[in-house]
Amino acid sequence: MDKKMMKESFELIDAHLKEEGMSRRDALKLFGTGGAAALMATGATGCTGTSSNAKGKILIVGGGLSGMATAAGLTHALSNPDITILEPNELSTSYQPGQTLVGGGVWTKEQVVYKRDDFLPDGVTLIKEQAVEFNPDSNTVKTSGGKTIKYDYLIIAAGLKLDFSKIEGLGIDQSITSTGDHSPVSKVIGQNGLASIYFQQGSEDTWKEMQKFIAEAKSGKKVKGIFTHPNTPIKCGGAPKKIMYLADARLREAGARENAELTFYPNGSNMFGVKEYHDAIVNQFEARDMKWNYRHNLVAVDPEKKIATFNRHWEEKGEWDEDLEEYSVVPRSEKVEMPYDFMHITPPQVAPEEIANSPLGSGKGWVPVKKETLQHVKYPNVFALGDIVAVPMGKTGGSARKQYKVVIENLIAVMEGREPKAEYDGYTVCPLITSLSTIMLAEFNWTGKPTPSFPLDPTQERWIWWLLKVYGLKPMTQYGMLSGRA
Protein backbone atom coordinates (compact mmCIF):
# COMPACT_ATOMS: atom_id res chain seq x y z
CA MET A 1 0.00 0.00 0.00
CA ASP A 2 1.55 3.33 -1.05
CA LYS A 3 1.35 6.50 1.05
CA LYS A 4 -1.57 7.90 -0.91
CA MET A 5 -3.63 4.71 -0.49
CA MET A 6 -2.77 4.53 3.21
CA LYS A 7 -3.78 8.18 3.72
CA GLU A 8 -7.09 7.52 1.93
CA SER A 9 -7.66 4.44 4.12
CA PHE A 10 -7.08 6.46 7.29
CA GLU A 11 -9.49 9.16 6.08
CA LEU A 12 -12.19 6.58 5.30
CA ILE A 13 -11.70 4.93 8.68
CA ASP A 14 -11.96 8.27 10.48
CA ALA A 15 -15.13 9.10 8.58
CA HIS A 16 -16.75 5.82 9.65
CA LEU A 17 -15.59 6.25 13.24
CA LYS A 18 -17.07 9.74 13.42
CA GLU A 19 -20.40 8.47 12.12
CA GLU A 20 -20.50 6.05 15.04
CA GLY A 21 -19.33 8.63 17.59
CA MET A 22 -16.05 6.83 18.26
CA SER A 23 -12.57 8.30 18.05
CA ARG A 24 -9.70 6.45 16.43
CA ARG A 25 -8.03 6.22 19.86
CA ASP A 26 -11.13 4.51 21.30
CA ALA A 27 -11.16 2.10 18.37
CA LEU A 28 -7.52 1.23 18.97
CA LYS A 29 -8.27 0.55 22.63
CA LEU A 30 -11.04 -1.79 21.55
CA PHE A 31 -8.82 -3.72 19.18
CA GLY A 32 -5.77 -3.86 21.43
CA THR A 33 -2.20 -3.92 20.19
CA GLY A 34 -2.54 -6.63 17.55
CA GLY A 35 -5.93 -5.51 16.32
CA ALA A 36 -4.84 -1.90 16.13
CA ALA A 37 -1.93 -2.87 13.93
CA ALA A 38 -4.31 -4.80 11.70
CA LEU A 39 -6.87 -2.01 11.52
CA MET A 40 -4.39 0.76 10.83
CA ALA A 41 -2.15 -1.35 8.59
CA THR A 42 1.02 -0.15 10.28
CA GLY A 43 2.63 -3.58 10.38
CA ALA A 44 2.70 -6.49 12.77
CA THR A 45 4.47 -7.37 15.97
CA GLY A 46 5.52 -10.93 15.22
CA CYS A 47 8.61 -12.12 17.07
CA THR A 48 11.12 -14.08 15.01
CA GLY A 49 13.29 -15.19 17.92
CA THR A 50 16.95 -16.15 17.76
CA SER A 51 18.17 -17.45 14.40
CA SER A 52 18.87 -21.16 14.17
CA ASN A 53 22.08 -22.48 12.63
CA ALA A 54 20.29 -25.61 11.35
CA LYS A 55 21.16 -26.57 7.78
CA GLY A 56 19.24 -28.30 5.02
CA LYS A 57 17.66 -27.86 1.60
CA ILE A 58 14.04 -26.77 2.03
CA LEU A 59 11.60 -27.11 -0.86
CA ILE A 60 8.22 -25.36 -0.68
CA VAL A 61 5.60 -26.51 -3.19
CA GLY A 62 3.24 -23.58 -3.70
CA GLY A 63 3.97 -19.86 -3.84
CA GLY A 64 0.63 -18.53 -2.65
CA LEU A 65 -0.05 -16.89 0.69
CA SER A 66 0.87 -19.93 2.82
CA GLY A 67 4.02 -20.81 0.90
CA MET A 68 5.38 -17.28 0.68
CA ALA A 69 4.67 -16.52 4.34
CA THR A 70 6.44 -19.72 5.40
CA ALA A 71 9.43 -18.93 3.20
CA ALA A 72 9.66 -15.43 4.62
CA GLY A 73 9.39 -16.66 8.20
CA LEU A 74 12.11 -19.24 7.63
CA THR A 75 14.48 -16.60 6.25
CA HIS A 76 14.11 -14.75 9.56
CA ALA A 77 14.48 -17.87 11.69
CA LEU A 78 17.45 -19.53 9.95
CA SER A 79 20.92 -17.99 9.90
CA ASN A 80 21.78 -19.44 6.49
CA PRO A 81 18.56 -20.63 4.79
CA ASP A 82 18.52 -22.70 1.60
CA ILE A 83 14.94 -22.36 0.35
CA THR A 84 13.38 -23.06 -3.05
CA ILE A 85 9.76 -22.38 -4.01
CA LEU A 86 8.01 -24.24 -6.83
CA GLU A 87 5.15 -22.15 -8.23
CA PRO A 88 3.94 -22.21 -11.85
CA ASN A 89 1.46 -19.34 -11.67
CA GLU A 90 2.16 -16.06 -13.40
CA LEU A 91 3.29 -12.90 -11.63
CA SER A 92 -0.24 -11.61 -11.00
CA THR A 93 -1.67 -13.05 -7.79
CA SER A 94 -5.04 -12.47 -6.22
CA TYR A 95 -5.79 -11.40 -2.66
CA GLN A 96 -8.57 -13.94 -2.54
CA PRO A 97 -10.53 -12.70 0.52
CA GLY A 98 -11.12 -9.48 -1.41
CA GLN A 99 -12.83 -11.24 -4.31
CA THR A 100 -16.12 -11.24 -2.38
CA LEU A 101 -15.87 -7.45 -2.12
CA VAL A 102 -15.26 -7.26 -5.87
CA GLY A 103 -18.29 -9.47 -6.49
CA GLY A 104 -20.42 -7.12 -4.40
CA GLY A 105 -19.18 -3.97 -6.10
CA VAL A 106 -17.24 -2.69 -3.07
CA TRP A 107 -13.78 -3.09 -4.63
CA THR A 108 -12.56 -3.31 -8.20
CA LYS A 109 -10.64 -6.29 -9.51
CA GLU A 110 -7.45 -4.22 -9.59
CA GLN A 111 -7.61 -3.87 -5.80
CA VAL A 112 -7.13 -7.61 -5.25
CA VAL A 113 -4.18 -8.01 -7.63
CA TYR A 114 -0.59 -7.90 -6.43
CA LYS A 115 2.71 -9.02 -7.92
CA ARG A 116 3.87 -12.22 -6.32
CA ASP A 117 7.54 -11.55 -6.99
CA ASP A 118 7.36 -8.32 -5.01
CA PHE A 119 7.02 -10.52 -1.91
CA LEU A 120 9.66 -13.11 -2.73
CA PRO A 121 12.04 -13.13 0.26
CA ASP A 122 15.67 -12.23 -0.39
CA GLY A 123 17.77 -15.29 -1.03
CA VAL A 124 14.85 -17.59 -1.86
CA THR A 125 14.98 -19.32 -5.24
CA LEU A 126 11.75 -19.32 -7.27
CA ILE A 127 11.27 -21.97 -9.96
CA LYS A 128 8.26 -21.16 -12.13
CA GLU A 129 7.28 -24.76 -12.78
CA GLN A 130 4.75 -27.18 -11.39
CA ALA A 131 5.51 -30.16 -9.18
CA VAL A 132 4.20 -33.16 -11.11
CA GLU A 133 5.70 -36.17 -9.35
CA PHE A 134 6.59 -36.75 -5.70
CA ASN A 135 8.96 -39.42 -4.41
CA PRO A 136 9.24 -38.88 -0.65
CA ASP A 137 11.25 -42.08 -0.20
CA SER A 138 14.09 -40.57 -2.22
CA ASN A 139 13.32 -36.96 -1.15
CA THR A 140 12.80 -35.76 -4.72
CA VAL A 141 10.20 -33.85 -6.71
CA LYS A 142 9.97 -33.79 -10.51
CA THR A 143 8.75 -30.63 -12.21
CA SER A 144 6.76 -29.86 -15.35
CA GLY A 145 10.01 -28.61 -16.91
CA GLY A 146 11.75 -31.93 -16.46
CA LYS A 147 13.82 -31.00 -13.43
CA THR A 148 14.37 -33.36 -10.50
CA ILE A 149 14.76 -31.39 -7.29
CA LYS A 150 16.38 -32.97 -4.27
CA TYR A 151 15.36 -31.76 -0.84
CA ASP A 152 16.03 -32.47 2.82
CA TYR A 153 12.75 -30.99 3.98
CA LEU A 154 9.51 -30.49 2.07
CA ILE A 155 6.65 -28.10 2.78
CA ILE A 156 3.45 -28.55 0.80
CA ALA A 157 1.41 -25.36 0.43
CA ALA A 158 -0.10 -26.03 -2.97
CA GLY A 159 -3.63 -24.83 -2.27
CA LEU A 160 -6.62 -26.53 -3.88
CA LYS A 161 -8.30 -26.76 -7.28
CA LEU A 162 -11.70 -25.47 -8.32
CA ASP A 163 -13.45 -28.36 -10.04
CA PHE A 164 -16.18 -26.72 -12.10
CA SER A 165 -16.07 -29.77 -14.39
CA LYS A 166 -18.22 -31.69 -11.90
CA ILE A 167 -21.15 -29.43 -12.81
CA GLU A 168 -22.65 -30.42 -16.15
CA GLY A 169 -23.44 -27.69 -18.63
CA LEU A 170 -20.79 -25.15 -17.72
CA GLY A 171 -18.59 -26.05 -20.64
CA ILE A 172 -15.56 -26.50 -18.42
CA ASP A 173 -13.44 -29.60 -18.89
CA GLN A 174 -10.61 -28.86 -16.51
CA SER A 175 -9.97 -27.93 -12.91
CA ILE A 176 -8.33 -24.60 -12.16
CA THR A 177 -6.09 -23.56 -9.33
CA SER A 178 -7.50 -21.21 -6.72
CA THR A 179 -4.44 -18.97 -6.71
CA GLY A 180 -3.62 -16.42 -9.33
CA ASP A 181 -5.72 -15.24 -12.25
CA HIS A 182 -6.63 -18.59 -13.76
CA SER A 183 -10.03 -18.25 -15.41
CA PRO A 184 -11.92 -21.44 -16.30
CA VAL A 185 -12.25 -22.27 -19.96
CA SER A 186 -15.94 -21.45 -20.36
CA LYS A 187 -18.22 -19.16 -22.33
CA VAL A 188 -20.90 -19.55 -19.69
CA ILE A 189 -19.76 -18.20 -16.32
CA GLY A 190 -19.78 -14.43 -16.41
CA GLN A 191 -22.94 -14.18 -18.52
CA ASN A 192 -26.47 -15.61 -18.65
CA GLY A 193 -26.85 -14.73 -14.97
CA LEU A 194 -24.11 -17.16 -13.91
CA ALA A 195 -21.34 -15.99 -11.62
CA SER A 196 -18.62 -17.14 -9.23
CA ILE A 197 -16.33 -15.12 -6.97
CA TYR A 198 -13.97 -18.08 -6.62
CA PHE A 199 -11.56 -16.89 -9.30
CA GLN A 200 -10.24 -13.45 -10.07
CA GLN A 201 -12.05 -12.66 -13.33
CA GLY A 202 -15.15 -14.37 -11.98
CA SER A 203 -15.35 -11.90 -9.11
CA GLU A 204 -15.50 -8.97 -11.53
CA ASP A 205 -18.07 -10.77 -13.69
CA THR A 206 -20.15 -11.51 -10.57
CA TRP A 207 -20.66 -7.78 -10.00
CA LYS A 208 -21.58 -7.25 -13.66
CA GLU A 209 -24.16 -10.05 -13.56
CA MET A 210 -25.47 -8.90 -10.17
CA GLN A 211 -26.05 -5.41 -11.56
CA LYS A 212 -28.13 -6.87 -14.40
CA PHE A 213 -30.11 -8.89 -11.86
CA ILE A 214 -30.74 -5.78 -9.75
CA ALA A 215 -31.80 -3.81 -12.82
CA GLU A 216 -34.37 -6.48 -13.69
CA ALA A 217 -35.76 -6.35 -10.17
CA LYS A 218 -35.80 -2.56 -10.23
CA SER A 219 -37.81 -2.62 -13.46
CA GLY A 220 -40.58 -4.43 -11.58
CA LYS A 221 -39.85 -7.95 -12.77
CA LYS A 222 -40.06 -10.75 -10.20
CA VAL A 223 -36.64 -12.40 -10.18
CA LYS A 224 -34.97 -15.35 -8.48
CA GLY A 225 -31.42 -15.52 -7.19
CA ILE A 226 -29.77 -18.84 -6.29
CA PHE A 227 -26.59 -19.31 -4.23
CA THR A 228 -24.95 -22.75 -3.98
CA HIS A 229 -22.58 -24.61 -1.65
CA PRO A 230 -21.14 -27.94 -2.96
CA ASN A 231 -20.62 -31.38 -1.44
CA THR A 232 -16.86 -30.94 -0.95
CA PRO A 233 -14.75 -28.99 1.54
CA ILE A 234 -14.34 -25.42 0.28
CA LYS A 235 -12.09 -22.43 0.72
CA CYS A 236 -13.80 -20.08 3.21
CA GLY A 237 -17.05 -21.80 4.13
CA GLY A 238 -18.78 -18.45 4.67
CA ALA A 239 -18.13 -17.06 1.16
CA PRO A 240 -21.26 -18.52 -0.49
CA LYS A 241 -23.36 -16.71 2.10
CA LYS A 242 -21.31 -13.49 2.00
CA ILE A 243 -22.10 -12.85 -1.65
CA MET A 244 -25.77 -13.58 -0.94
CA TYR A 245 -25.83 -11.01 1.86
CA LEU A 246 -24.24 -8.47 -0.51
CA ALA A 247 -26.84 -9.21 -3.20
CA ASP A 248 -29.54 -8.60 -0.59
CA ALA A 249 -27.88 -5.32 0.45
CA ARG A 250 -27.50 -4.09 -3.12
CA LEU A 251 -31.15 -4.89 -3.90
CA ARG A 252 -32.26 -2.92 -0.84
CA GLU A 253 -29.99 -0.07 -1.84
CA ALA A 254 -31.72 -0.01 -5.23
CA GLY A 255 -35.19 -0.17 -3.65
CA ALA A 256 -35.90 -3.45 -5.44
CA ARG A 257 -35.63 -6.09 -2.71
CA GLU A 258 -39.35 -6.91 -2.72
CA ASN A 259 -39.10 -8.10 -6.33
CA ALA A 260 -36.32 -10.59 -5.69
CA GLU A 261 -36.41 -14.04 -4.11
CA LEU A 262 -33.01 -15.09 -2.76
CA THR A 263 -32.44 -18.75 -1.87
CA PHE A 264 -29.39 -20.54 -0.50
CA TYR A 265 -28.92 -24.18 -1.57
CA PRO A 266 -26.22 -25.84 0.57
CA ASN A 267 -25.34 -29.51 0.30
CA GLY A 268 -25.18 -29.75 4.09
CA SER A 269 -27.81 -29.57 6.78
CA ASN A 270 -26.84 -26.38 8.57
CA MET A 271 -25.66 -22.83 7.96
CA PHE A 272 -22.43 -23.14 9.94
CA GLY A 273 -20.57 -25.89 11.76
CA VAL A 274 -20.56 -23.94 15.03
CA LYS A 275 -24.05 -23.86 16.56
CA GLU A 276 -23.85 -20.30 17.86
CA TYR A 277 -22.97 -18.96 14.42
CA HIS A 278 -25.53 -21.23 12.75
CA ASP A 279 -28.28 -19.82 14.97
CA ALA A 280 -27.14 -16.25 14.33
CA ILE A 281 -27.14 -16.75 10.56
CA VAL A 282 -30.60 -18.32 10.58
CA ASN A 283 -31.88 -15.29 12.49
CA GLN A 284 -30.19 -12.96 10.00
CA PHE A 285 -31.68 -14.84 7.03
CA GLU A 286 -35.14 -14.68 8.55
CA ALA A 287 -34.83 -10.96 9.27
CA ARG A 288 -33.82 -10.32 5.65
CA ASP A 289 -36.40 -12.69 4.14
CA MET A 290 -33.65 -14.82 2.62
CA LYS A 291 -34.65 -18.44 2.07
CA TRP A 292 -32.72 -21.70 2.22
CA ASN A 293 -33.06 -25.37 1.30
CA TYR A 294 -30.62 -27.81 2.90
CA ARG A 295 -29.24 -31.00 1.32
CA HIS A 296 -29.13 -29.73 -2.26
CA ASN A 297 -26.00 -30.27 -4.37
CA LEU A 298 -25.74 -28.51 -7.74
CA VAL A 299 -25.02 -31.07 -10.48
CA ALA A 300 -26.06 -29.39 -13.75
CA VAL A 301 -26.92 -26.05 -15.33
CA ASP A 302 -28.84 -25.17 -18.49
CA PRO A 303 -27.53 -21.64 -19.21
CA GLU A 304 -29.95 -20.95 -22.06
CA LYS A 305 -33.08 -21.92 -20.15
CA LYS A 306 -31.60 -20.67 -16.87
CA ILE A 307 -32.42 -23.86 -14.99
CA ALA A 308 -30.27 -25.35 -12.23
CA THR A 309 -30.46 -29.06 -11.44
CA PHE A 310 -29.77 -30.19 -7.89
CA ASN A 311 -29.38 -33.58 -6.31
CA ARG A 312 -31.71 -33.34 -3.31
CA HIS A 313 -30.80 -35.96 -0.75
CA TRP A 314 -32.19 -37.13 2.57
CA GLU A 315 -32.40 -40.18 4.82
CA GLU A 316 -35.37 -42.36 5.70
CA LYS A 317 -35.95 -44.96 8.39
CA GLY A 318 -35.49 -48.46 7.01
CA GLU A 319 -36.13 -51.94 8.34
CA TRP A 320 -35.57 -53.05 11.94
CA ASP A 321 -32.17 -54.67 12.50
CA GLU A 322 -32.56 -57.53 15.01
CA ASP A 323 -28.84 -57.76 15.76
CA LEU A 324 -28.25 -54.05 16.30
CA GLU A 325 -31.72 -53.52 17.75
CA GLU A 326 -32.24 -50.37 15.74
CA TYR A 327 -33.73 -49.24 12.46
CA SER A 328 -31.46 -49.01 9.45
CA VAL A 329 -31.02 -45.70 7.67
CA VAL A 330 -31.79 -45.60 3.95
CA PRO A 331 -30.30 -42.79 1.84
CA ARG A 332 -32.66 -41.28 -0.71
CA SER A 333 -32.18 -38.70 -3.44
CA GLU A 334 -33.89 -37.13 -6.41
CA LYS A 335 -33.06 -34.60 -9.11
CA VAL A 336 -34.90 -31.30 -8.82
CA GLU A 337 -34.86 -28.34 -11.21
CA MET A 338 -34.87 -24.72 -10.11
CA PRO A 339 -35.27 -21.71 -12.43
CA TYR A 340 -33.05 -18.72 -11.77
CA ASP A 341 -32.30 -15.24 -13.07
CA PHE A 342 -29.00 -14.98 -11.21
CA MET A 343 -26.97 -17.85 -9.75
CA HIS A 344 -23.74 -17.69 -7.82
CA ILE A 345 -21.87 -20.98 -8.10
CA THR A 346 -19.48 -22.17 -5.43
CA PRO A 347 -17.63 -24.94 -7.30
CA PRO A 348 -16.58 -28.31 -5.88
CA GLN A 349 -13.01 -28.05 -4.61
CA VAL A 350 -10.40 -30.79 -4.59
CA ALA A 351 -6.72 -31.39 -3.94
CA PRO A 352 -4.45 -31.19 -7.01
CA GLU A 353 -4.28 -34.66 -8.57
CA GLU A 354 -0.50 -34.83 -8.61
CA ILE A 355 -0.53 -34.51 -4.82
CA ALA A 356 -3.72 -36.42 -4.05
CA ASN A 357 -2.54 -39.47 -5.98
CA SER A 358 1.05 -39.37 -4.74
CA PRO A 359 2.47 -41.19 -1.71
CA LEU A 360 2.12 -37.91 0.17
CA GLY A 361 -1.61 -37.77 -0.46
CA SER A 362 -2.16 -41.51 -0.11
CA GLY A 363 -4.89 -41.32 -2.74
CA LYS A 364 -7.18 -39.63 -0.22
CA GLY A 365 -6.88 -36.11 -1.57
CA TRP A 366 -5.81 -33.72 1.15
CA VAL A 367 -2.36 -34.23 2.65
CA PRO A 368 -2.65 -36.24 5.89
CA VAL A 369 -0.84 -34.60 8.79
CA LYS A 370 -0.82 -34.70 12.56
CA LYS A 371 -3.38 -31.96 13.03
CA GLU A 372 -1.54 -30.23 15.89
CA THR A 373 2.04 -30.23 14.52
CA LEU A 374 1.13 -30.24 10.79
CA GLN A 375 3.83 -32.86 10.27
CA HIS A 376 3.07 -35.58 7.70
CA VAL A 377 1.75 -38.77 9.30
CA LYS A 378 4.30 -40.95 7.47
CA TYR A 379 7.22 -38.72 6.45
CA PRO A 380 8.69 -36.72 9.37
CA ASN A 381 10.64 -34.36 7.06
CA VAL A 382 7.42 -33.26 5.32
CA PHE A 383 4.97 -30.62 6.54
CA ALA A 384 1.82 -29.20 4.97
CA LEU A 385 -0.38 -26.18 5.57
CA GLY A 386 -3.10 -24.07 4.01
CA ASP A 387 -5.94 -25.32 1.85
CA ILE A 388 -4.19 -28.59 0.90
CA VAL A 389 -3.88 -29.89 4.44
CA ALA A 390 -6.18 -32.58 5.88
CA VAL A 391 -7.35 -31.06 9.14
CA PRO A 392 -10.93 -30.89 10.46
CA MET A 393 -11.31 -27.21 9.53
CA GLY A 394 -9.22 -24.28 8.46
CA LYS A 395 -9.29 -23.49 4.73
CA THR A 396 -9.02 -19.75 5.35
CA GLY A 397 -6.28 -17.13 5.30
CA GLY A 398 -6.75 -16.65 9.03
CA SER A 399 -6.01 -20.33 9.58
CA ALA A 400 -2.91 -20.19 7.40
CA ARG A 401 -1.67 -17.23 9.45
CA LYS A 402 -1.62 -19.49 12.52
CA GLN A 403 -0.43 -22.59 10.69
CA TYR A 404 2.69 -21.21 9.05
CA LYS A 405 4.20 -20.21 12.38
CA VAL A 406 3.64 -23.74 13.70
CA VAL A 407 5.25 -25.22 10.60
CA ILE A 408 8.30 -22.95 10.93
CA GLU A 409 8.86 -23.77 14.59
CA ASN A 410 8.35 -27.51 14.11
CA LEU A 411 10.44 -27.74 10.96
CA ILE A 412 13.36 -26.08 12.71
CA ALA A 413 12.92 -28.48 15.62
CA VAL A 414 13.19 -31.44 13.22
CA MET A 415 16.20 -29.85 11.51
CA GLU A 416 17.89 -29.55 14.90
CA GLY A 417 17.05 -33.15 15.83
CA ARG A 418 14.32 -32.25 18.31
CA GLU A 419 10.70 -33.36 18.55
CA PRO A 420 8.20 -30.85 17.14
CA LYS A 421 6.31 -29.27 20.03
CA ALA A 422 4.41 -26.30 18.54
CA GLU A 423 0.70 -26.99 18.13
CA TYR A 424 -2.02 -25.61 15.90
CA ASP A 425 -5.35 -25.53 17.76
CA GLY A 426 -7.56 -25.36 14.70
CA TYR A 427 -8.08 -21.61 14.90
CA THR A 428 -10.21 -20.37 12.02
CA VAL A 429 -11.69 -16.96 11.37
CA CYS A 430 -14.44 -16.03 8.94
CA PRO A 431 -15.36 -12.35 8.63
CA LEU A 432 -18.94 -13.01 7.50
CA ILE A 433 -20.11 -9.98 5.51
CA THR A 434 -23.78 -9.38 6.34
CA SER A 435 -24.40 -5.99 4.68
CA LEU A 436 -22.56 -3.07 3.09
CA SER A 437 -21.43 -1.90 6.51
CA THR A 438 -21.52 -4.86 8.91
CA ILE A 439 -19.69 -8.12 9.51
CA MET A 440 -20.06 -10.97 11.99
CA LEU A 441 -16.53 -12.00 12.94
CA ALA A 442 -16.83 -15.77 13.35
CA GLU A 443 -13.79 -17.15 15.19
CA PHE A 444 -13.58 -20.75 16.38
CA ASN A 445 -11.29 -23.75 16.73
CA TRP A 446 -11.49 -27.52 17.12
CA THR A 447 -13.62 -27.18 20.24
CA GLY A 448 -16.47 -26.23 17.92
CA LYS A 449 -17.20 -23.19 20.08
CA PRO A 450 -16.77 -19.46 19.42
CA THR A 451 -13.29 -18.26 20.38
CA PRO A 452 -13.48 -14.46 20.03
CA SER A 453 -10.27 -12.44 20.15
CA PHE A 454 -12.10 -9.39 21.49
CA PRO A 455 -14.48 -8.90 24.46
CA LEU A 456 -17.57 -8.60 22.27
CA ASP A 457 -20.45 -10.95 21.46
CA PRO A 458 -19.09 -12.74 18.35
CA THR A 459 -22.56 -13.54 17.01
CA GLN A 460 -23.43 -9.86 16.53
CA GLU A 461 -22.99 -7.98 13.26
CA ARG A 462 -20.73 -4.98 13.78
CA TRP A 463 -19.50 -2.05 11.66
CA ILE A 464 -16.07 -2.17 13.35
CA TRP A 465 -15.38 -5.56 11.75
CA TRP A 466 -16.33 -4.03 8.39
CA LEU A 467 -13.53 -1.51 8.89
CA LEU A 468 -11.13 -4.33 9.69
CA LYS A 469 -12.18 -6.33 6.63
CA VAL A 470 -12.25 -3.51 4.09
CA TYR A 471 -9.31 -1.39 5.28
CA GLY A 472 -7.13 -3.53 7.53
CA LEU A 473 -6.82 -7.17 6.52
CA LYS A 474 -5.34 -6.76 3.06
CA PRO A 475 -2.35 -4.60 4.11
CA MET A 476 -1.88 -6.76 7.21
CA THR A 477 -1.75 -9.83 4.97
CA GLN A 478 0.53 -8.36 2.32
CA TYR A 479 2.90 -6.44 4.55
CA GLY A 480 2.63 -8.56 7.67
CA MET A 481 1.99 -12.20 6.85
CA LEU A 482 3.81 -12.21 3.50
CA SER A 483 6.83 -10.72 5.26
CA GLY A 484 6.78 -13.62 7.72
CA ARG A 485 6.21 -11.33 10.70
CA ALA A 486 2.44 -11.37 11.34
Verbal overview:
With 486 residues, this protein is of the alpha/beta class. Helix content is 29%, strand content 24%. The protein contains 10 helices and 25 strands. It has helices at residues 3-19, 24-40, 65-77, 99-103, 200-218, 239-253, 275-287, 353-356, 397-415, 463-481, and strands at 57-61, 82-86, 92-94, 113-115, 125-127, 131-135, 140-143, 148-150, 153-156, 161-162, 176-177, 194-195, 223-229, 260-266, 291-292, 296-302, 307-321, 326-339, 342-344, 349-350, 367-368, 382-384, 389-390, 428-433, 439-444. The strands form 8 sheets. Strands 5-2-1-9-22 form a 5-stranded parallel sheet, with helices on one face. It has a 5-stranded parallel sheet with strand order 12-19-13-14-15, with helices on one face. It has a 3-stranded antiparallel sheet with strand order 6-7-8, with no helix packed on it. β1, α3 (65-77) and β2 form a beta-alpha-beta unit. It is globular, with a radius of gyration of 23 Å. It starts with a helix and ends in a 5-residue tail after the last helix. The relative contact order is 0.16. Residues 31-48 and 175-182 have low confidence and may be disordered.
